[in-house]
Amino acid sequence: MTALVTRCREPSQISYLLFIKRLDDLELVKEKKAQRLSRPVENPIFGDNNKHARWSYFKNIADAEEMMRVVRDEAFPFIKNLGGEAAKSAYARHMKDAMFLIANPGLLSNVVSQIDSIPMEDRDTKGDLYEYMLSKLTTAGTNGQ
Question: Would you say the C-alpha torsion 131, 133, 134, 140 has a positive or negative sign?
Answer without folding.
Answer: positive
